[in-house]
Known about the structure:
The chain is α+β, with helices and mostly antiparallel strands. The chain is about 25% helix and about 20% strand. The strands form 6 sheets. Strands 3, 4, 7, 8, 9 and 10 form a 6-stranded antiparallel sheet that branches. Strands 1, 2, 5, 6 and 11 form a 5-stranded mixed sheet that branches.
Amino acid sequence: MFGPTSDNSHGNSSASGQLLTPMRFVWPHGGRRVFLSGSFTRWIEHVPMSPMEGCPTAFQVVCNLAPGYHEYKFFVDGKWRHDEHQPFVNGNGGVVNAIIIAGGQDMVPTIGFNLETHGRSNMEVDDVVMRMGDLSQEFIPRMSRPDFEVSHHRISEFLSKHTAYELLPESGKVIALDVNLPVKQAFHILYEQGIPLAPLWDFSKGQFVGVLGPLDFILILRELGTHGSNLTEEELETHTIAAWKEGKAHISRQLDGSGRPYLRPLIQSKPSDYLSDVTKKILENKVAAVPIIHSSSQDGSYPQLLHLASLPGILKCICRYFRNSSSSLPILQQPICSIPLGTWVPRIGESNGRPLATLKPHASLGSALALLVQAEVSSIPIVDDNDSLIDIYSRSDITALAKDKAYAQIHLDDMKIHQALQLCQDANPIYGFFNGQRCHMCLRSDSLQKVMERLANPGVRRVVIVEAGSKRVEGIITVSDVFRFLLRL
């Protein structure tokens, strides 16, 4: 958050080393008490503005702003106002003024007032790039093709020169499951260990053969539920993991030429594989993680499971590598609303080939699980009647049904989502949380760098784009979306 500076204070850089530009904001339309607020204060702080000397109807303040797209508004005598003489858009918080900061200068450009032109716009300065058009349309700053190509090349080059060794933690554990374990027991192990998935080990073959994850449990519960019976312990007891994997192939009609079930081979990587190859394996096979397996012999015997590589872990490596040289990736400073990234709620008159799926808290758990499977998404925002974000239901939340054997006592169509979410919190108050939050949010004006750093945190696989103040859901960005955009996949 950036606060005001004195008129003779020309900001240098933020704590992260990012160059800041001092901008003077002016409200020339009178009032007794005037404050400034905007995306650069996350709409939380109201920065007081001071009357201008020699012009009692004008108020001013100087704020240090990072390069990028910013929205702002004035709070005048207890009412929100925007300056109609400046570019304004339909953005966060209704109608707001907007500005793009292209880079820091030694001068202090003025937004909103010019004594020589008696209040007309003074936006024609080198470090402020505005695009004036139909004011009813969204104000979207554009990025040059060369800047995008430079960013794409440098990220691709990083991933092609660094290996999976960099993903290995200094210490930790990776849990693997015997493929002959009953599904019920595996269900409880993942819940008790607080992990969403685990590799599968086949003793008879002496190798890792697959991964058991939350989607498996969702499909199991839905499959048993469709046969008109409640989900009993006995039903889950009869299914070993191996039997389920074979049955899953039948359900999905994954059969080979002879009509036998086709079991997809394990997607895995070696520690010497380049990060670019690991990333493509995860994206192309639509898996949450890839086991990093080391074998001491050429025939693949005596395999050692070292780590589960995931996109957040790879993204963390990228953020760490470019943290002190973010200027080498111009795309990082772009606001997420200006780039083709994520899934957005379509605006009136717009078409969207992949509409954002949301549910109300009183929808059934069965409908949520069906949507997770059919829409091939990993999470669903839960919203109120005003489409404001309440919570989010993710695939991994299914493991909470292992608490007190809840899966044996409920029917999917009888349990409501808000009950399932409460069960998640009761089962493990810290599971799925990071920094005290389950729902990770951002604003449409946030930079790509800010979103990437948030997605690189443990347990965070998506951020929900919300409208400032109302928390109305505007879209969602997953870690997969970021990689597909950066690598043009």
